[in-house]
Each structure stands twice: as C-alpha cells, then as structure tokens.
Amino acid sequence: MLSLLQRISPFGRFACASIALLVAGCSTTPVNDQGNAPAGMYEGSAANAPAAPVETAQLSTLRTLTAQQDRLYRVAAPLLVSNAPLCRSYARNLIGFSAKNKYSYSSDYVAAAQALGFGEQLQVTGVLPDSGAARAGVMRGDILTSVEGKPMPQGENAERDAAMLLAPMVAKRASVKLGLLRGDRSLTLGVPLTLACGFGIELGNIDNVNAFSDGRRVLITRGMLNFAHSDTEVAYVLAKELANNALRYPTRLRMTATEGGIIDNLIRINPDTAPLNGTAGVRPMPKDLDIASDTVSLYMLARAGYDVRGARAFWQRLAEQYPAEVLNGYTAIHPSTAARLVNIDRVIGDIQAKIAKKEPLFP
To answer: Does the pLDDT at position 41 exceed 70?
Structure first.
C-alpha cells in the first residue's frame, strides 16, 4: 500500500517508506518451512533454490523478525483499510502491497535476505486483503518491473527511488499500471488505489510491554506482542495507537519528537535500551484524552470486524500485570485505568446497539 510516509525499516538503512510506499505498514515476508524462499514464490523462479541455506545467526534473527512484523501487518491491515473516515486528514491513496529487495535490510543482513530469496529487484512481500492490488491479482512473490511504463528502480536505493517515482503518480490517479514478472511470465496489471489510514506499523525489538505513536507511525514492542493472547488483542493495542495518531495526540501533547525518537531506536535490530528503563521522557496521557482515544479505537476495531467485547478484560489484565509502578510499561503512560474501563464498557454497549440497529459505526 503506498503510504508515502518516510519510515525506517526495522531491519535497515532506508525508510521502509521507501516501500511503505506500497503498504502503510511495512510488511515483511513469512518464510516457508524449508526457509529457502519467501512464501508465495513460484516454481521455476530464481528464489526457489534446491538447497536450504545454512542457518546463520543473522538468518535466524531475520526469520524471527520478519515473522513478527508480518503478523503485525496482517492484524493492522483491516484497521487501516476500514477506517479512512476516522483517520481524517491522515487518509491516503495506497497501492495495496509491500515490496522489498535484499538491500531493505542492514548491511549485516544482506546475505541472510538473499538466502530468503531477495535479490536486486523489488519483490512483493505482502498483499493487503480487499485492496485494489488484491482485486487486480497482484501476488506475493511478484517482481516489480515497471510502473506507468517507467522502469522500477533496482539495487541499493530501490526503495527510496521507487517511493519518489510513485509519490506523484498516486496523488493524481485513481489507478496505476504495474509491470510484473511472475516466474517466467511478464504481466501488466491495472491496480486501483485504496483509500486507507496512512500510518506506518512498526515492531519494537525490546521485551518491555509497551506501544508508542508519533503522529505518522505506531509501534508495538516485542514484549507487547508476546503479552497478547491473540491477534484480536494485538489489534486492541494497534487501534489504540492509531486512534492517538488520528486525534493528533503526539502533536497536541508535544510528544512527536520524543516518541519518534523512541520508535527510531526500537526498530533497530539491536536498540539502545539504556534510555528505556523509565518512561523515556513520555508524559502520562491525561485522562480525558485517553478516554477519547479509547472511544475512537473501539469504533475502529468494530469497523474492521474485530470483536470488541474482550477489550475491557485485556486492558484490565495489562494494568494488573504491568501496573503504573512499572515505569517502562504501558500503564505508566496510560495510568487512568479505572476511568478507561468504565468508558470502554459504555462504548461497547453503544457499538453493539448500533450494530443491532444497522446504524453506521461512528463515535
């Protein structure tokens, strides 16, 4: 999905916006059981090497990180696509897929990325369900060769250069014409653009149970991902941070630079954990703002098809296991648990009543 937001890849040197360019959340590639190619590669493609690569430390790390990031993207996708009206001025035209090459990762991980099937050309790593790309037939593993008749950039700066090429196109068109290589076949597809929330989705490589938003990205830590018992619980946290961005809280609370710096740090494979022993400079959110973003987040969840009925139990469990006294945890910067739970109960009742009456789901 072309988000055109400058974002840093959790693995590397460029903005994933480079090809967040293609997907609002920087998606990554799930790996098949043999680990010798990105899932969805085609028989006869160069990525389908007959022998599995040696399992180096870098390859193992990259395999784990890509699986976690792919899970985040999968959970975030319906939230992004279903909530353009609630994201207001942050809604963007997106193409509906993500793409990477072997240089999408830091220099230490290029060989590992190549072992997973990435080369010089940008390759589709995920297609957003119900997007224009999905309807047009774009598939995971497709190689991007051209857009509107212009060659798609390759090599070390491919993501950044592709973002610059695509940005003016999506601003002026309802669809774009993509040239693809699928196995041995060359294809040209007309891809309608998809209006969606233009926020980046990031994984934080730390075990602290927390989440952050800086006005253009949301980040969930590895610790929060592991704390969640299900994808629906992951969605509760993602929706909460998306709502914070949609309501412009990072700007209103003058936390954009602080939380942006935290996100830039945590998306590195080996972040600096020293500044994160406390709240890292993030001020506790005022109760009225926290309640308002809970309201928006619950509507985002319902619009995306998630079951909101478990939200209260999730936030209560989080507050009990990681109370405000745990300064590097989520509750320390969202301390108004009692008031939040009362409001969550009320909003869930309102949402269920609107669903029963088949009324539009707007706060």
So the answer is: no
pLDDT computed for residue 43 by the predictor? 34
Residue 88 · residue 246 · CB < 8 Å: yes
d(CA 210, CA 322): 10
> CA–CA separation, 157 vs 1, rounded Å?
19
Beta strand 194-197 with 91-94 is antiparallel
Alpha-carbon gap, residue 137 to 297, rounded angstroms: 31
Q: Are 96 and 194 in contact (CB under 8 A)?
A: yes
- What's the average model confidence in pLDDT over 280-299? 96
- The torsion angles phi and psi of 235, rounded to 5 degrees, stand at -65, -35
d(CA 44, CA 194): 32
Residues 47, 70: Cα–Cα separation, whole Å: 19
Cβ neighbors of 128 (< 8 A, separation 6 or more) are 1, 23, 77, 80, 81, 94, 96, 97, 134, 194, 196
CATH number for 16-196 (one of 3.50.50.60, 3.40.50.300, 2.30.42.10, 1.10.287.3510): it is 2.30.42.10
Average pLDDT of the residues of the chain: 85
Give the pLDDT score at 46: 41
Percent of the chain past pLDDT 70, that is, above it, reads 85
94 bridge partner residues: 194
Which residue has tokens 């909101």?
308
Asked if pLDDT for residue 31 goes beyond 50, the answer is no
- For the chain, what are the domain ranges? 16-196, 205-356
Rounded-to-integer distance, Cα 347 and Cα 312, Å: 11
- Name the band, by pLDDT with cuts 50, 70 and 90, for residue 96: confident
Q: What separation in angstroms does the CA of 110 have from each of 10, 22, 101, 262, 319? A: 14, 21, 9, 25, 40
